[in-house]
Each structure stands twice: as structure tokens, then as C-alpha cells.
Target: Metal-dependent carboxypeptidase
Amino acid sequence: MSAFTDLMAYEKITQALGSVAGRLNWDQETIMPAGASAQRGEELAAMETVLHARRTDPRVGDWLAAIEGHALDQVQAANLREIKKSYARNTKVPAALAAEIAKVTSLAQGVWAEARASDNFAHFAPMFQQVVALKREEAAALAEGGDLYDAMLQDYEPGATAAQLSDMFGALRPRLTALRDKVMGADQPKGVSGTFDADAQMALTREVAKSFGYDFNRGRIDKAVHPFSSGSGADVRITTRTSEDDPFNCLYSTIHEVGHACYELGIDDQHMLTPLGAGVSMGVHESQSRIYENQLGRSRAYTEYLYGKMRDKFGDFGIKNADGFYAAVNRVTQGYIRTESDEIQYNLHVLLRFDLEQKIINGALEIADLPEAWNAGFEADFGVKVDKVSNGCLQDVHWPVGLFGYFPTYSLGNVYAGCLNKALRDDLPDLDSSLSQGITTPATDWLRVHLQQFGGLRAPNETIQHACGFAPNETPLLEYLEAKFSDIYGLS
Model:
């Protein structure tokens, strides 16, 4: 087994270098000077060149061959599975292509930010065309004659196919649409009013992050245009954003990213700087952010605690009691932005992107036609015309940086979160008494013990089934949403 020891020592260095590359991306999104974007593109391309060379080094293949047939324990076998998968993937993608994708997507992020700020899709379209062409080339190398989009999905949700996801999403859409229509026809709860100081929001959001167990000794909160979580092991950072007329944007973006971060921080230390030392898939990762944000953070019990904190920090903001605040936090309103959407309509935002990105990758939709296709799809789903591209196809950073196949994992994560919430509530019937005091420990401990600690030990579906005791399906999410919003809106 010396081959296994040598392979894992080599992999530890590769994982550490990958962490360094991730830190460069975090810096670019938060504090990097705007004029450094071209140089950062070269730096990221250089890192990708080094990483690609390590991931495709012939020695990896030799070690894998030498280990074949040896008895392995569960952790060793899982590490070997992930290294095999990475080696097979990376040997299919030419090093020059991997470096070019890293460089172009880094540059595209800056161009996208400019185009979004100026509502000018034409400014971004040529660069976006380059990104799409490169990602199609990569997908063709990975698919080896198969479906390009399915090949892309494997980077985010191993084992998933577009056909499987379409079936699941097809079951979600009619019940979500029906619930949305009922809610929109009911009397709307009152929202918050006033101006909410940005510094005060950031102070409160740090308190909220701590209440969900975020460890500031191994993390930090900064601001970014698009909130995200970055890192693994002992360094997991999050970002949020503030709006002086909408404090929920900051608070719930933070709780969402804390869910991602706590997954990474909760992984057993034995997996650090190994292939198992990160979340197993983006769908499972999203299950953690969504259950923290929604089933816990937007629950009647936790909002009772948060209402008191808001009153202490901001005084009177137009909501007279905790019940009114719970309704305000969970208001269902028309809007353009996915990240600001309520629980009912969020998945409808995702389904639009899922439909469009398949067409982009499979060549059924030209880049120049994307704004029109987006606007038509949005109006069909939401009954509202998009007013500008920053509220439409330029609102998300995912496509500019080449993350095709990522969007459906958001809805898959909601489905997983629905399953986890059912299992968690069955095990913790008195959870609300803790949540109403801002104590989330029973829930976050349950998630760490049943899911987070294992990292990438099991495949995504197996991870959820192991935690819940049943196979993942959309029914628990739909039943949770229908019960919650029927109660808030007094629906029969």
C-alpha cells in the first residue's frame, strides 16, 4: 500500500494548491483593485496550468493501477473513487484549454460587471460568446460523443442527468405555480419600512452568523456584488451585501452563506486536504444553505428571536409584533431577482435558467438572442415584463464564469433541504423552543452529525438518504411550502 500513501501525499499538495487558487478568486470578488483584473486572469491561468499538470500526471495513473485490487476501508475507497474520477476527467481536457478557460472566465467576470452596471448586454456578448465556445469544447472532450449538458452536470451533481432533473422539476412546477397564484390573490402582509444603516446591518449580520454557529476564528464576512462562500478546512469565508431599504437582503444572504460555510467547517478533520474534505456536490451544499436560510432562519420561531434583535438595532420599522414580522420575512411579492426571491417562486427562477442554459450549450439558442428568450420565458412564468438586462439575463455571475450545469443544483438543494427538514423535525420535536431564543445548536448539531461531518464520503443521493433514512424526493418540500404559506396567508 505504499502506492496509496504516495498518492495521498501527492493529492494533499494538489488540494492545497487548489485552495490557494480559490483564495485568489475570493480576493477578486472582494478587495482586489479593479485595475488588476488582467493580471489576475494571468495568475489564475498559471494556477490552473499547474493544477491541471498535477491532476493529469502519469504517476497518478501508475499509483491508481498499483492500488487496484487491494483491500481498502470506506474512507480509503472513497478517496480513491474521487481521485479516479478527477484523473479521468482531467486527462480528457487539454491543459491549454483548461488554462484558457481560467483566463477568459476571469476576464469575463469583469466585463459582465461593467455590462450589468450599464445595462448593456451588447458590451458583454462577445466575451460571453468566447466563454460558451470554450465550455462547449470542454464538454465535448468530457462527453466523448454523449450529451454536452449532462457532461457539464457532473462537475456539480455527480450522477445527475438533465432528463432526471426535468422529471423532478416537472413535478415541482405545477404545485408551486398553483400555490403562488393562491398567495398572490390573498391579502399581502405588511413589509418593513424605514432606512437601515449599512454598518448596523453588518453588525447584526455578524450576530446572526454566530447564532448559526459560524466560527469567526476560521472565517470572515466581507461584502461582494453577488454573495458567496469560499474555502474549506480551517479557512471558510463568506460575503454578503447591504441595501439600506431592505435589511433582509443582508441578513438572509448571510444565513444562506453561513449554511454553505458550516458544511465545510463541519467536515471531519481527517478529511482536510483530501478529496473528501469538501461538500460532495452543489446540490447537497445547497441543501445546507437553504435549510439554514429557510426552514430554520425563516421559521416562525427563529423570526421571533430576530424580531427582538431588529428592534434593538433599528427601533421602530413599522412592524408591531413577532407574528407580523414572521409574515413580513416570508412575503411573496413579484420581483426580478433570484437571490431576493421568496421560497415559493425561487425554484421558478431556477427552472428558467435550467431551460435556457441547456439551449445555449446544445446550440438551440444564439447568444445574441438570449435577452429576448429570457424576457419571454420570465413573462410566461411570472406574468411580468423584464425592464432591463440587469434584472434579466445579466443578474447572475454564473454564466459569465462558465458555471453551466450549476443552476439546477439550487432547486435540487431545495428538494434535499425539504427531506432533511422532515427528518430533523421528526427527531427534534421541541426544536422551536430553542429557535425562538436564537439557539440553533440542536438543528445545526443534527446536520453536522448526520450529514456535514462526512464531506464527500458518499455519493450525493446516498448522502441525503443516509441522513434522512429515505430516498430524496420532492414531496417533503412541497408539503412544507404548502403548509407554511397556507398558514401565513390564511389559505383554505
Notes: The mean pLDDT is 96.
